[in-house]
Amino acid sequence: MKRRILLSLFILLLAGNTFAQNKTYFGFEFSLANDIFKIRDNGDYLKPISLYNFQGGVHLRQEVSKYFFIEAGVTLKTYQEGYGFRTIPYEASSSSENSWLIPLRFGANVNLYKHRINLVPIVGYTFGINPPLNFSGFGYGTQRSTTSTIYYTETDVPVASRFFSLLQLGIGLEFKVSNGLLFTASANDYKGFQTTDQLEISYVVNSSPVVTGTATSKGDFWCVSTGVKYAISNFWKKR
């Protein structure tokens, strides 16, 4: 996997020699993300909840022309998992180990103000790597309100593969501070194609029969991001 990561990054450096008249940027990006779990409930008590977390990474960007660019990088992300009960103000959530995301993005620069503020639509593909599942992931508990008591158990089901794919759609703003420095702000939505995490849930409300449900993720999340990029091609162009 390290070879794939290095290959994605160095492709852009090699492209910098091909498109010598355009800039090559190196940057950092940080995001506030919300992971998405879909709930299937054979009763009427389970609900999805907000699963906020932070992620960060580094990126290389190569301008293909004045208006288009390609970008690759590596992002470290800790996925959250969880669910809630509709009748009790309780939310069960936990974090897994760190996952690696390797994005490949294509973007455009749409001038908004004197080529110093650009609107930037982005579409991309992300290759994800989850850590090995090395624990059973079993839990249980009791939640009470004035009208009901819920006994529940949950099991984290291992998935077939640690590797997954995401489609990214995003929109952002970029602010050109100087000839080589950019500040960025964006909103992005990531959609997956296969199950990456699944919780099997069983619960009993008061003295009712056992009810089952699942909370399933395909790696989906949305995020708001900010970052800074510098044109490292300025170093070799000045020589």
Description:
The protein is mainly beta. It has 2 helices and 15 strands. An 8-stranded antiparallel beta barrel has the order 1-4-5-6-8-11-12-15. The protein has a 5-stranded antiparallel beta sheet with strand order 2-14-13-10-9, with no helix packed on it. The radius of gyration is 22 Å and the shape is elongated.
Task: Give the topology.
Blueprint (H helix, E strand, L loop, with lengths): L1 H17 L5 E12 L2 E4 L4 E2 L4 E12 L4 E18 L5 E18 L1 E4 L3 E13 L8 E7 L4 E9 L5 E14 L4 E12 L4 E9 L5 E7 L3 E11 L1 H5 L2
Antiparallel strand pairs: 1-4, 1-15, 2-14, 3-5, 4-5, 5-6, 6-8, 7-8, 8-11, 9-10, 10-13, 11-12, 12-15, 13-14
Query: Which regions contain 5 or more consecutive residues with pLDDT less than 50?
Result: 12-19
| Intertermini distance | 35 Å
Q: Describe the largest sheet.
A: 8 strands, antiparallel, barrel
Radius of gyration over C-alpha positions, nearest whole angstrom: 22 Å
Principal-axis shape: elongated
Number of strands: 15
Mean pLDDT: 87
Which strands sit side by side, in order, in the main sheet?
A: 1-4-5-6-8-11-12-15
Decide which structural class fits the backbone: mainly beta
What is the chain-wise order of helices and strands? HEEEEEEEEEEEEEEEH
Helix content: under 10%
Strand content: over 45%
Number of helices: 2
